[in-house]
Amino acid sequence: MANKAFVAKNGLTVNTASIIMSELSGTLTPTTAGKILITDGTGQMGTRTEAQIKSDIGAGVVETVTAGNGLTGGGTSASVTVTMGAPTTLTVSTTDTVGAETHAHAITSSSDVSGGTAAILASDGTGKLKVHTLDAATALQIGGTAVSSTAAELNLLDGSAKSTASITLADADAFIVIDGSTTKQIPASDITAYVGANPADFSSAILPNASGTIDLGSATKEFNDIFLADSSVIKFGNDQEITLTHNPDKGLTLKHEATGDDIFPTFTLATKQTDIQANDVLGSLDFIAPDEGSGTADQDLLAGAIRVISEGDFSDTSNASKMSFMLGSSEAATEKMSLSSDGNLTINGNLIVSGTTTTVNSTTVSIADPIFELGDGTSDDNLDRGIKMKYNSSGAKIAFMGFDDTDGKFMMIPDATDTSSVFSGTVGTLKANLEGNVTGDVTGNADTATALATARNIGGVSFDGTAAITPDEITVADESSDTTCFMLFATAATGAIQPKTGTNVTFNSGTGIVSATGFSGTLTGAIQTASQTNITAVGALDGGSITSNFGTIDTGSSAISTTGVLTGGSVVVTNESTIGSASDTDAIRIGAGGSVGFSNNTVLYGASNSTVAVASTQTFSGSIATGQNDVVFTFKAKDGTASPTGATNYQGGEIVLTLKKGTDVETKKIMIHHDGDPSADGTDIFITEFATLGTELAENITVSMGDADGTSLTTNGDKHVHFKIENTSGTDAMTFAGVAHLVEIPGDS
Questions:
Q1: What is the mean predicted confidence (pLDDT) over 617-631?
Q2: I need a surface site. Which of 56, 248, 352, 402 has the fewest CB within 10 A?
Q3: Do residues 732 and 657 both lie within one domain?
């Protein structure tokens, strides 16, 4: 049948299985207005526009993709897999996008025999890109550098896969550090070099992250020994006000660093007992010698202790305790002395007091010993022995009853005077029943006696006691052995008068020497002592020497002038008196308290010793006019070569100097030293000024060498160090005062 055209209206139904159409000659150009002939699922045929076809395809699912050169695909409506075979590559253009975010897309290798399940790169529904196993022969590279780490090793860097197993670190083990902006791996030995040879060698302080937050050790992990250096300090508290300081080779010092009034350190021994009963020890300081090597018996026992022990049960109203002092002899220490809460001191042994005064203010003193010993018999101290009693009778008074050392008799003085344990005063009346012989004056009357039963001849006159008599004579005997005799004298030239004696005039019958406290009148004739020649002149002693074996020469307000030597005993002058020379009469002044002052820059000679240095102190003062450079003090440094004085040689010492100019005052501390043989220019004499307080006065301090008086050397050649001060400027004089503590050259004689 020839090709014919026909038109069917209202649809065309074909009752055949096939409709054959001839191929359109020429090119079909798609346009938006063009139609495409399709049939639907019921067999009906119709047309759809291009836009309708695109919409139909987008609304459905591409289930199979087939493209040349190894690109194959297929799947269900749930997933589509695209497999790329070699050598085709997949490139992504800037306009490509990935749709269906809930699906997984993968790129597999062409040799993947599992049908595309082993993915090289894959992304899951969260958008994360994953890399599958890398071939060992082809490592992952970043910037041309192969990455040899495993995923587990890389995870250790951020701590997401940290190991909890312990290892033993060695020098070859490595640490990862940030060196500037570069991550590096270093050996463990580098860490050792940084923090020290062992973990405790730190180069700076070890600090907690905040104050009071870090403990040193714990209840289950304790440190062992602590080693601290000499003079190290442990400081306590936020203000470090309590310190425990090591005193090298001695011990420890607990100190409160605050400087306010009534502030002191407290060392507390505290018990944690919750029920204190009688005889519980609250704290103890024990003394023991654990390293004594002489044996293992008594020497290892407790040698001593000081303890506080409860005297009863503690309560709201009682914490009575005693302090126990324990000592050992050949035993563990036991209590030898205790002080109770009532203030009672109990001593188990003897009480020995070596002081000069012991005062007991007890109202009652009980002594069990039947013998009460007084005094010391090792030497003759010329002191009385007895009981001194205090009382008040129109004023404070003392009474004395005891042994009078002067005459060897017992006496009782109701109103006594105590002069350094020598008692004096009028003897009182003793009320007592007497037995035995009575010597001396007896006052009062016998009950019935009116006269002596037998008269006695006294001085050539009979005496029976009925009336007073005047003796005509006294019988004496020659006696030449008493060292202390009292001379008789009378208060009138004639008459019936009583002979008397005085303690201020004594006579030694053995030597014939009369001693008196003074003499008034003119001495004529010779005055002779046991060992000196006659004194043939009166007035001043202007020659020879005075030698006294009496111990003291007291001149009172008078003067002793001599060109000789005073030897023996001591010379006593009144308070604030002076000793001097012809040209300097007040060179030395002696104060009431024993202080000695010097009026001039005089060298003081210390004692000599062949093995150790001996120190001496020198004071000096004066005034320096402006523009003057004066020697203010000197000290001997080296013996001369001609005729040395033999005085002590001093190596140097410390000088404390105060200067005043106008109203300005300056104080300095200076060290001075020489090399043993100082020269005149002073270049080998050294001074160091290491402390200055006050206002600088612009003085100039220098040194030189010369004689003791501050001038150049004299013929004896003794070398003295000169300390000089120059008042450099201004119109005011400069006054000065200082003290020098000098040290002798060790071994100098």
A1: 90
A2: 352
A3: yes
DSSP 183-238: EEEEEHHHHHHHH-SSTT--SS----SSTT---SS-SSS--------TT-EEEEST
Task: Provide the pLDDT confidence category of residue 559 given band limits of 50, 70 and 90.
Answer: low
672 and 708 both lie in a single domain: yes
Phi-psi region of 405 (alpha: psi -120 to 50; beta: other; left: phi over 0): alpha
As a whole number of angstroms, the distance between CA 674 and CA 743 comes to 12
Q: Could you tell me if residue 375 is inside a domain?
A: no
Q: How far, in Å, are 27, 516, 517, 523, 541 from residue 520 at the CA level?
A: 178, 11, 10, 9, 18
Position 118 in a domain: no
Regarding whether 734 and 625 lie in a shared domain, the answer is yes
Dist CA 329 CA 629 (whole Å): 70
If asked whether residues 708 and 663 sit together in one domain, one would say yes
| Whether 647 and 705 share a structural domain | yes
One-letter amino acid for residue 647 of the chain:
A
Tallying the residues shown for the chain, one arrives at: 749
Which residues have a Cβ under 8 Å from the Cβ of 48 and sit 6 or more positions away?
35, 36, 38, 56
573-584 residue pLDDT tens: 777 778 877 777
Domain shared by 636 and 692, yes or no? yes
Q: Does residue 621 fall inside a structural domain?
A: yes
10 Å Cβ neighbour count for 684? 14
Hey, what are 531's tokens?
């060992």
Burial of 241 (0-12, 13-18, 19+ CB in 10 A): middle
How far apart, in Å, are the Cα atoms of 293 and each of 290, 300, 447, 579, 637? Answer: 9, 9, 82, 61, 51
Q: In terms of Cα–Cα distance, which of 563, 521, 566, 518 is closest to 543?
A: 563
At residue 341's C-alpha, the angle toward residues 335 and 347, to 5°, is 35
Is pLDDT above 70 for 250?
yes
Q: Within 10 Å of residue 707's Cβ, how many Cβ atoms?
A: 20
| Position 37 in a domain | no
631 & 732 share domain: yes
For the segment 479-491, what is each residue's pLDDT rounded down to a tens digit? 788 888 888 888 8
As for how many domains the chain has, the answer is 6
Nearest partner of 35 among 45, 25, 26, 46, judged by Cα: 46
The rounded distance, in Å, linking the Cα atoms of 109 and 89 is: 10
Domain with 194 in it: 170-203
Q: pLDDT for 287-337, tens place per residue? A: 999 888 887 788 889 999 999 999 999 999 999 999 999 999 888 999 999
Strands 719-726 and 700-706: antiparallel
Task: With 0.70 as the threshold, say if the pTM is over it.
Answer: no
| pLDDT at residue 4, rounded to an integer | 57
